[in-house]
Write a structure and sequence with these properties.
Helix content: 10-25%
CATH class: Alpha Beta
Strand content: 25-35%
Number of domains: 1
Shape: globular
């Protein structure tokens, strides 16, 4: 998706920002796979997590179905950075592959401020395969130069991100 012309050594250019703004908030691929960041309706809402005064937990299937609001064979989401694979009663699967580049953060703007922490700096992704009885997910955690990423975060005056990139834990 990215053109080599769009990326310049760790900086986000106006061309990058404009390209990102031009993308639709959701996409349907392969006829029955829905892609979204948070929920299909709102990028800043969690699809798979429930945040309450007592912390962050896996949302119930009813909450997930209600938030999804659409019928699809598979829904691929992000936002929380937590790798998860949930199968709903109707066979729909919801997959969050985790984060390639920010394994922890503290959300102080949420109604209930909270930390999301994965516990290691590894980049995360997932493979989703259609199999005889639905879908199979394979999660991967891989090494990358998280020290270089942390240096960029530090240079950008984001000590919280630098810490998260190095450790997988949030600074509060």
């Amino acid at each position: 998706m990215f053109s080599g012309r769009l990326m310049r050594s760790g900086t986000t250019t106006e061309v990058n920002k404009e390209w990102l703004r031009s993308l639709p908030p959701t996409a349907v691929v392969a006829d029955d796979i829905l892609l979204c960041h948070g929920t299909p309706e709102r990028d800043v809402d969690y699809l798979l997590e429930d945040v309450s005064p007592t912390g962050v937990s896996l949302a119930s299937r009813d909450q997930i179905r209600s938030r999804a609001g659409v019928k699809a064979g598979a829904i691929l989401c992000g936002h929380s950075h937590v790798p998860r694979f949930v199968r709903l009663e109707d066979g729909t699967v919801v997959l969050n592959p985790g984060s390639v580049g920010l394994q922890a953060y503290y959300d102080s703007d949420h109604r209930y401020p909270h930390a999301i922490e994965i516990g290691s700096p590894h980049a995360r992704y997932a493979l989703l395969d259609r199999v005889e009885h639905g879908w199979r997910a394979t999660f991967r955690a891989v090494d990358y130069d998280w020290e270089a990423a942390a240096r960029l975060a530090t240079a950008g005056k984001r000590a919280d991100w630098a810490h998260a990139l190095l450790t997988g834990y949030a600074l509060k």
